[in-house]
Specification:
Transferase(Phosphotransferase), domain 1, about 10% strand, globular, Arc Repressor Mutant, subunit A, 4-stranded antiparallel beta sheet, alpha+beta
């Protein structure tokens, strides 16, 4: 970087910061994309290498030029051409009148030449939009930002990844169908329409409605000042059926474009000839896996397959013998855990607890299974990684023989894939059947275990119920469901909302509610279901699926990488109303409701209206300004609700009562200085419904000396006991008849009984406080090592006989974690 002088930060790209620099040698201006590669997972480095490889193949005057790259102090710097007149989006925003047709056609011709150059080299851009089109002062167009590009193996190949920007997505993408180069043509048509109208070709008041508008393919005509030939060219780009949509070759033959293409031809030939001679080196600090190296390694493996076939068959036979005997498999895993010695580590300046390296596991496999080579150890590791015996801490899918690749055994996870406690033995379930089953189970739980308004949930009653057992069976069946095959976007959204809300409840019962910000973040990141062979945590469902793979609050990465197969099941266009229908198990979360595909729009509007009406306040001050209090989620994700504060306020006003909505609209119309925005912090108290106290036991009086003392969690507690006047515990009488409790039910009931929120019960009476002291910080730590003894001490300090002493330990760390008491 000593060769350059930084001028300013231009912005933040897909992988890091972007700065404008001046080369000290001659004063030339460049743009440098910077990425801290040492702190990024391998998948991110692969994405950047993909962009570099794509750029290094492109030499065209209408494509942002690549001048080289270098690594300095762990930072990858990619030097690129600087377009000194901003983006096309900037020009449209600042324009005071419509563009001349000659300007529109000139941009059209230059973009076609750029796209033709890409497609001839089997490269699909996949993110053409006005913000990725740059302009020089000579009004030369430069197509840039190839972070999402994909090099296809063949011209007829199809890219399946669900990526792009909502306004420019093609109908086939919205329907989840495969697409090829015609999606770039659709996006080009959307860009040209925007140039000719200063508005998006497809727009709507909600994102599901936007998807429907794109799928229908209905849009208003462009401005009448433009010629019929230009209108026809744009229409040919925006045909719904990819087969009917024009190709680049078709559009380049249009008479409308010929004068502009001829003017570009001479200068383009000279530019291409000159730039082809320029050496554009890639950085060489070690090999980074890229799509190209994958192809090369695949070919080498294919050449060697004949000689290794017998060895692979033999090792697979050994694995089948071991995996068929649960006792032997458990013994092998126990020995491997001892051999790999999982410990807490630091990776990329972040702590990673209780993990082992891929190289250590390979060493252990060579010894334990007496394998002949490390390549066979890789086969075993990959098989067991895919079977879920352990997992990559960064959610990677490849097992690597490396000291940098960190993995964790399932037994060492505090969070859990909680629908894998029993493997689903039934046949595959269709996505439509799974969506209906999830919704029906949720309807039954809401009917029997929530307060009248749906805001509070009786966790203790639910833990012992037949409805919860039926839900666990339904959750197990998700192991055989492919969510990407759901028939429609509303069905996908409804199913994942319902799954998120029930996964929170399921996690609270099995793991316990989080007690602070760090535990809350861990709970969201690690409480998971396996759906169709892929793991979906709460964060994956919220930000990866429902928000269309957008970054969570205070995090640097999106949940899914471009190569992640779960991306195919993501909702392609995010809807900000999603934030107000997810029940996080807290008082400020949404009410628990069962969402139906046929009523999704109505339900989203209703729940958003209820939530915002309860939170948003509007107060007029003496100086005439309006103070608006908004939910904190709008501070965390402002871009989900609009690009400016005025847009966000107007979005909120749609869901408020008339008086508040009118006050907000008036303040916005008078200028941004007339509206002062504040944010209401979330209420993290658990949304626990406390039932009225049961009848006195064996005729004991309700109050005074000798009365039963309150149990942890208030009158909903399950451990029956009596207390003498001195406070010493005495044996309780027989409990009322009820459902027989299993060991797991005892665990869940004891844990939820230990949760006290001091909130009102449904009838309005205050619930008693927890008897005994709160946990110490070490006891409250999720990573605590003695949960059973912590629970015992909590009970003893409260004068309660130990219930856990009556149970037999299974040796399963997850069961030990479940048994941990919890105090809010």
């Amino acid at each position: 970087m000593e060769r350059f002088e930084k001028i300013r930060t231009v912005g933040r790209g897909a992988q890091g910061s972007v700065i404008l620099v001046r080369r000290k040698q001659d004063g030339s201006l460049f743009v440098i994309k910077r990425l801290f590669v040492d702190e990024r997972p391998e998948s991110d480095r692969t994405d950047v290498m993909n962009e570099i490889i794509v750029l290094s193949q492109l030499h065209h005057p209408n494509i942002v030029a690549y001048y080289g790259s270098f690594i300095e102090d762990g930072v990858l710097n990619v030097v690129m051409e600087y377009a000194d007149n901003g983006s096309l989006s900037d020009h449209i925003t600042k324009a005071s009148k419509m563009f001349a047709e000659d300007t529109v056609v000139s941009f059209f011709a230059q973009l076609l030449l750029a796209i033709n150059h890409l497609h001839q080299r089997k490269i699909l851009h996949r993110d053409i939009k006005t913000k990725n089109i740059f302009v020089t002062r000579r009004m030369q167009v430069k197509l840039g930002d190839f972070g999402l590009s994909k090099v296809l193996d063949t011209t007829a190949g199809f890219a399946q990844s669900a990526v792009g920007t909502p306004y420019y997505l093609s109908p086939e993408l919205c329907q989840g169908r495969p697409y090829n180069y015609k999606s770039d043509i659709w996006a080009l048509g959307c860009v040209m329409y925007e140039m000719a109208t200063f508005r998006h070709a497809f727009d709507a008041t909600s994102l599901p409605a936007l998807v429907m508008a794109i799928v229908r393919g209905e849009y208003s005509p462009i401005e009448p000042q433009y010629s019929t030939a230009l209108q026809d060219a744009i229409n040919r780009c925006l045909r719904k059926d990819p087969e009917d949509r024009a190709s680049v070759e078709d559009l380049l033959q249009l008479p409308l474009l010929q004068p502009h293409l001829q003017r570009c031809a001479a200068s383009n030939k000279a530019y291409i000839s000159e730039m082809a001679k320029v050496e554009r080196p890639l950085f060489t600090s070690g090999q980074v896996e890229t799509p190209l190296t994958n192809i090369r390694e695949g070919w080498q493996a294919q050449q060697q397959r004949a000689t290794k076939e017998d060895e692979e068959k033999a090792i697979l036979k050994v694995l089948e013998d071991v995996e068929g005997d649960e006792g032997q498999l458990a013994q092998v895993i126990s020995e491997l855990r001892a051999a790999t010695a999982p410990v807490d580590r630091i990776q990329g300046r972040m702590p990673v607890y209780c993990c082992f390296t891929g190289a250590a596991l390979c060493d252990a496999l060579l010894t334990r299974l007496q394998l002949g080579s490390r390549s066979l150890a890789l086969i075993v590791g990959q098989r067991w990684l895919e079977s879920g015996l352990f997992y990559h801490v960064a959610r990677g899918e490849k097992f690597l023989d490396s000291d940098d690749a960190l993995y964790r055994f399932r037994q060492d996870e505090v969070g859990a894939i909680i629908n894998l406690k029993s493997l689903y033995a039934g046949g595959p379930t269709s996505p439509a059947e799974a969506e209906a089953a999830v919704r029906q189970r949720l309807v039954a739980i809401i009917a029997g275990y929530t307060s009248s308004n749906g805001e509070l949930l009786d966790y203790e009653g639910l833990a012992l119920s037949e409805e919860f057992k039926q839900w666990t069976d339904t959750a197990a069946s998700l192991q055989r469901v492919d969510p990407a095959a759901l028939p429609s976007t509303p069905a996908k959204i409804a199913m994942f909302i319902n799954l998120y809300n029930m996964l929170v409840v399921h996690g609270f019962l099995v793991i316990g509610p989080p007690s602070g910000p760090a535990q809350r973040a861990h709970f969201e990141a690690h409480t998971s279901y396996t759906i169709g062979g892929s793991i979906y945590s709460l964060a994956d469902i919220y930000h990866g699926v429902l928000r269309g793979n957008r970054r969570p609050h205070a995090q640097l990465r999106c949940p899914f990488t471009p190569s992640d197969p779960r991306l195919q099941g993501a909702v392609l266009v995010w809807d900000p109303r999603i934030h107000f229908v997810l029940n996080h198990g807290t008082r400020s979360g949404a009410r628990l409701a069962a969402y139906e595909p046929s009523r999704l729009e109505e339900q989203l509007d209703e729940q958003t209206r209820i939530c915002l009406t309860n939170i948003v306040t509007v107060e007029e001050s003496v100086d005439g300004r309006v103070e608006v209090t908004l939910p904190t989620v709008m501070q965390w994700y402002p871009g989900d609700f609009g690009e400016t504060e005025a847009q966000r306020l107007l979005w909120v006003a749609r869901f408020l009562p008339a008086a508040r909505a009118s006050a907000i609209r008036s303040a916005v119309s008078e200028g941004s200085k007339n509206a002062v925005v504040k944010f209401l912090p979330p209420n993290w108290h658990i949304n626990k419904l406390v039932r009225p106290a049961p009848p006195p036991i064996r005729g004991m009086p309700r109050g005074g000396r000798g009365a039963p003392q309150p149990l942890p969690g208030g009158p909903g507690g399950f451990a029956a006991y009596n207390s003498s006047s001195s406070g010493a515990p005495s044996p309780a009488g027989p409990p009322p008849r009820g459902p027989r409790r299993t060991r797991d039910a005892n665990d869940i009931a004891d844990r939820m009984a230990a949760v006290s929120v001091g909130e009102s019960v449904e009838s309005g009476a205050a619930s008693p406080a927890v008897v005994g002291r709160p946990r110490t910080p070490s006891e409250a730590n999720v990573g605590g090592t003695e949960p059973s003894r912590i629970l015992t001490r909590l009970r003893q300090s409260s004068g309660i006989p130990s219930v856990t002493s009556q149970r037999t330990s299974t040796g399963d760390p997850l069961d030990d974690i479940i048994a941990r008491g919890f105090v809010e």
